[in-house]
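Mods, move this if it's the wrong board.
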Amino acid sequence: MRLRRSAPPPPAAGPSEPELEAMLSRTTATVFERPVESSAFFHRLTESRRALSGLTSTPATAFLLALPASGEAVGSPEFKIIQHGLTVGRSAQSDWSVADLRTKLSGQHFRILATAEGYLLQDLNSTNGTYVNENTNPIRQASLCDGDVIHAGGRKFLFCQGAAETD
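Not the wrong board. Structure tokens:
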């Protein structure tokens, strides 16, 4: 007797396959300008794609998406729209107050500013530093590209330019 495998559950609603492909193509165009170590680049793309597929719709403006920590259950993605700027940290004074049980994230860890040239990431003198993508050197400030992953205090955040900003 053969066991029949049941069909996989339907995918969660989110960006369509063409929208995901467009997001990834914009990422790959800029990511090769940065140092890539082993398979970390491909892991980042896979992780980003999985997180984006959990969104019910893609915001029209730039946003920051919290990626699940290792071992953390994947639920509804948390994200914040970046209007003129966004401060992230543990403190209630941050625009996005992120729960951090390990307290590696500073009270006000980093800020993203919208400028005429694009988006600028600034470390706010955090204790444990702010990193972008696979770079092992902490940044003081850096320009952000669509699809960049920000590492801060053991947490990861995906920077995405909105659908209207990338057309």
